[in-house]
Amino acid sequence: MKYIPANRFLCCVVCFLFFSCSSEKHVHVSTPKTTGGGAVSAQFQSSDTAMSGGYSLAITPANATRNSTFRVVAQGFRVSDTKMEWLLNGHPTASGNSSQFDARETQKGDKIQVKAIVQDKETMSNIVEIKNAPPEISRVKILPEIFKPGDTVRVEVSANDIDGDEVTIAYEWTKNGEPAGKGKQLEASIKRGDKIAVTITPFDGEVNGAAVVLNREIKNMPPTIIGDNTFHFDGKLFSYQIKAIDPDGDSLIYTLKQAPEGMVVDKTGLITWKASDKSRHAVTVQVTDAEGGEASYTFNVILGSQQ
C-alpha cells in the first residue's frame, strides 16, 4: 500500500472543498451606499406611496371626491413630529401642519398631495385626483299622506350634487309588483290592500347616485260625500238625501253632528225634520265606514228656500 504524506492529503481536501463550493449558484449581495454621515440610504418606488431616505408617505383615500377627508399614512417617522404641507394642484393650501385635509373646498379634477420635511429632507406623497361625486337624494315624500278617492299618488323629491352638476331624477313605480309608471306620479288606480312602491334614482350626467325606495300599502280609504243642494219641504216635513260612496265598498254610517232639535238621519243617509220654525239652521252630517274612515258635510237650511 502506498502512503500519501499528510501535507499532500490536507491540500487535496482543501482543493476539493473549494471546487465543490464554486459549483453553487452565485447570489449577488449589494452593499448600500453610505452618506457622508454614515447613514444608510435606499431608494424605493411604489405606485401607491412615495418613499425617500427610508421613509414612506401616502395619502388616502385613493379614490376621492369632494365628500372625502384625506389622511396621511406615514412609515419611518412620526407625523406629529414632522412639518406637513398640503398641496392643491401643486400649490400650498391653508391647511397648515395637519394630518388631515377636508376636500370640500376643492373642485372636481383638482389634484391633492402632501409634502413632509423629515430630517431636513423633503418627502412627497402620491397624488390623488378629485373624482366626480355622485348626486344624493336630500328629501323625498309620497303624497297625499291620506289617500282619498280620485287622489293622484305622487312624490316630491329634492336632490343635490356637491360638484354643482345638474341632477335629473328617474322614477319607477310598481303596484302589487307590476310596473305602474315612470313619471312623478303613479299611473294606476288604487284601492285598499294595494301595495305600491317607487324607486327614485338621481343622475348627474356621469353616474347614478344611491336610489331611494318608498313603499306604501294602501289602507282604508274614507268615504266621499257628493254635495247636492236639492231638498224637499211640503210645508210640514223637510227631507234631504245625503249621497255618499266608499271606494272600498264598506258599509256607511250616517250621523248628525250639528242639527236643529228633532232632525234625524236614517241608515241610508235620508235626513228628515218636522219643521218647528223657519229660522236659519246649520246642519253637519258625518259619514263613517267600518274601518274608521270618515267624511263630513255642512249645509244651511232656511225653510222656504234652498241654500
Account of the 3D structure:
With 307 residues, the protein is mainly beta. It has 3 domains: 56-130, Sandwich (Immunoglobulin-like); 136-218, Immunoglobulin-like; 224-302, Immunoglobulins (Immunoglobulin-like, Sandwich). The protein has 1 helix and 24 strands. Strands 4, 5, 7, 8 and 9 form a 5-stranded antiparallel sheet that branches. The longest helix is centred in the N-terminal third of the chain and has 17 residues, at 6-22.
CATH class of the largest domain: Mainly Beta
What is the oligomer described by this structure? single chain
Helix content: under 10%
Low-confidence stretches: 1-48
Count of domain modules: 3
Q: Percent of residues in beta strands?
A: 35-45%
Return Rg in Å: 43 Å
Alpha-beta content class: mainly beta
What do we call the CATH topology of the largest domain? Immunoglobulin-like
User: How can the largest sheet be summarized?
Assistant: 5 strands, antiparallel
Identify the CATH architecture of the largest domain: Sandwich
Distance between the termini: 150 Å
Give the averaged pLDDT, no decimals. 82
Q: What coarse outline follows from CA principal-axis ratios?
A: rod-shaped
Number of helices: 1
Secondary-structure element series: HEEEEEEEEEEEEEEEEEEEEEEEE
What's the count of strands?
24
